[in-house]
């Protein structure tokens, strides 16, 4: 109950940041581009929507661009904005005087970032659906997608990307919670994203957790070792960064 109340408090504070708008804009950014491209080429719309693989095509197009750059960047910015609220307002001392344990405070903020990540995924998938449906509402000669919506493949694919996102989220949360300068965690995150674009096809690229989302589209690439269990690495990094972050937070001497 204490954790729930703390979560509610953090959720209210989150509304005073730009993190909410960043989540919404980031989620619809790629689907909007794909939708605009489809509308500007109306000659192929009817053929695409009548295809038996229309949803798979839209899923692959949207996730290919989202996973490589937009998703990691969105996580970096959102995690930094959420955890920097107290630094910006010089409110850490006030927060730490409330009748809440440091564990509850840590988990409440972390749950906010996880909830916003879930919100991002839901909105992004809504964007994919609208990308397939809206052309049929705009153009009378364009049919609604003929393919039945593949719920199970979509859920399985999203679950993978969500798992791949967790190490990025936990590391950015760690950096933002312990570094007062807002630009340092963002700068580190940007550098990691750039490094991941270079290392994604490297045989040891799995050592960099920022590459995991991109690797999903390169699983059949012979430069990537199929024996490397990305799921295990992703889970391991998430547990490592979260545990390290928690231990650093509850043991640090300065609470200001």
TrEMBL record:
Residues spanning the signal sequence: none
CDD domains the record matches: ABC-2_lan_permease-like
Keywords for this protein: Membrane, Transmembrane, Transmembrane helix
Membrane-crossing segments per the record: 21-40, 63-83, 104-134, 154-175, 182-202, 230-250
Coiled-coil boundaries: none
Keyword Transmembrane helix: yes
Keyword Cytoplasm: no
Protein name: ABC-2 family transporter protein
Pfam families given in the database record: ABC2_membrane_4
């Amino acid at each position: 109950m204490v954790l729930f109340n703390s979560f509610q408090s953090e959720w209210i504070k989150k509304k005073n940041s730009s993190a909410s708008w960043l989540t919404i804009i980031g989620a619809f950014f790629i689907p909007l581009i794909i939708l605009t491209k489809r509308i500007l080429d109306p000659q192929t719309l009817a053929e695409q929507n009548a295809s038996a693989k229309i949803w798979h095509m839209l899923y692959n197009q949207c996730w290919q661009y989202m996973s490589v750059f937009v998703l990691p960047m969105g996580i970096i910015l959102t995690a930094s904005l959420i955890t920097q609220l107290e630094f910006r307002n010089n409110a850490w001392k006030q927060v730490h005087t409330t009748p809440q344990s440091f564990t509850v405070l840590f988990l409440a903020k972390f749950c906010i970032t996880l909830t916003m990540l879930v919100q991002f995924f839901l909105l992004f998938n809504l964007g994919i659906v609208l990308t397939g449906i809206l052309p049929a509402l705009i153009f009378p000669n364009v049919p609604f997608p003929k393919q039945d919506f593949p719920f199970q493949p979509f859920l399985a694919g999203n679950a993978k990307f969500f798992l791949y996102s967790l190490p990025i989220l936990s590391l950015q949360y760690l950096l933002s919670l312990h570094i007062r300068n807002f630009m340092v965690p963002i700068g580190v995150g940007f550098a990691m994203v750039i490094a991941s674009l270079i290392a994604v096809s490297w045989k040891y690229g799995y050592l960099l957790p920022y590459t995991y989302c991109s690797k999903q589209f390169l699983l059949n690439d012979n430069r990537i070792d199929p024996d490397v269990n990305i799921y295990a690495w992703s889970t391991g990094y998430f547990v490592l960064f979260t545990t390290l972050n928690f231990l650093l937070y509850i043991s640090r001497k300065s609470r200001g």
